[in-house]
């Protein structure tokens, strides 16, 4: 699947010698900026609706693993909807490399009635399943996998018969061209996008169903250079700590691809890929 065509970035964004010229976000700043970024998008709500509808089709006794679970906001919301009215508990485990986020996941999801929660620290690349699952979710978490084909094989191997591997990854469109140009390499490679996942699926011979979900992202906070939250959100958009000289060019690009209307609102799509066991 080819990457979606997007407008050319301002020259200032392409003039860096390489992506390693910019510092990566620390785990703490990443978690803070990610939460603020998500709060300004309708995408999480769209994803929650889609995941809820999908999980409600499963039998009462369902075991789910969330890979790269973060602080558990999305998982807790979906779990509350899915478990309501069920006679058997929903099992929901989280896996995340950032310990404070995994602790928050366990606290949030564990507080949902009718849910048995578990959490562990780790990455998808080093994942070793302690149990099998009916559904494995990887929502916005495979961007940083070291070996994407190997991760796909590991995750599908942990599925029960008739299970599903559900992966959500952003396309390299207008919004994400910023991170595509500026995000420092991690694990020896650039950040992966939806078209990279398509290539990895083909490499390992997996067939997947793809659905594009669309949200709206409002970045008005970023227009105020003195707004610290807005600065953090802009860093998250670039997946890097932006120097002052790049903040205005990045904003100029985002303004150039905004949706018609008032303020800085952008199309915020994500591709959902589903592999059956």
Let me know the largest β-sheet.
7 strands, mixed
Corresponding CATH superfamily: Vaccinia Virus protein VP39
The CATH architecture classification is 3-Layer(aba) Sandwich
End-to-end separation = 22 Å
Topology pattern, helix = H, strand = E? HHHEHEHEEHEHHEHHE
Residue-averaged pLDDT: 90
What's the overall geometry?
globular
Tally of separate helices:
10
Low-confidence sequence ranges: 1-7
Any idea what the radius of gyration is? 19 Å
Number of strands: 7
> How is the largest sheet built, in terms of strand order?
3-2-1-4-5-7-6
Q: Do you know the CATH topology?
A: Rossmann fold
Helix percentage: 25-40%
The number of distinct structural domains comes to: 1
**Could you say which structural class the secondary elements and strand pairing correspond to?**
alpha/beta
CATH class: Alpha Beta
| Beta-strand proportion | 15-25%
Describe the protein.
This protein starts with 10 loop residues before the first helix and ends with a strand. Helix 5 links the parallel strand 2 and strand 3. It has one domain: Vaccinia Virus protein VP39 (Rossmann fold, 3-Layer(aba) Sandwich), CATH 3.40.50. Helix content is 37%, strand content 21%. A seven-stranded mixed sheet has the order 3-2-1-4-5-7-6. The chain is globular and about 55 Å long. The N terminus is likely disordered. It has 277 residues and is α/β, with parallel strands linked by helices.
